[in-house]
Amino acid sequence: MLYILFMKPISFPPKPITVFLDIDGVFHSAIPLSVETMWNRRDIVSHALFTHREHIEIIISSTWRLNHPLDELRSLMPVLDNLIIDVTPNLRPKGSAWRHDANTRHLRQSECEHWLMKHRSFEQPYIAIDDMKSWFAEGNENLLLTDFHGFTYGDALTFKMMIDERL
Question: Which run of H or of E encompasses 58?
Fold first, then answer.
């Protein structure tokens, strides 16, 4: 807090919390069974994140970023579109398998941290919402791990607690 002579303290708003957001396994099952189940968790995810809009910025970390431009990704999440500011870089080594490969271990975490170092700082509070545990280091306290069925109301409560811890 900053004091100017004998005046009241001046408070600065908290830094935004960066949320790295996956799509498959978060907005819907990692393996959608049908067109009807595609995006079936969008309302739960959107509400949970939009509730904290004053404190968060969203970076898409999903592999969807490799085949869909940022504007298209925003259009798929209309409630969140103004909060989505960027995508993480692709640090996947050429020739590595999409999921299960020694080269992809902790890859998503590396991509998130690379984005933070380039655009914020390493001390920037962040939360990564993802369903792939192996793409993050064991014990990463910034990971909100969903199961492959998608984001739940329980995940929304966990997200709120993680936000509160970082404010």
Answer: strand 56-60
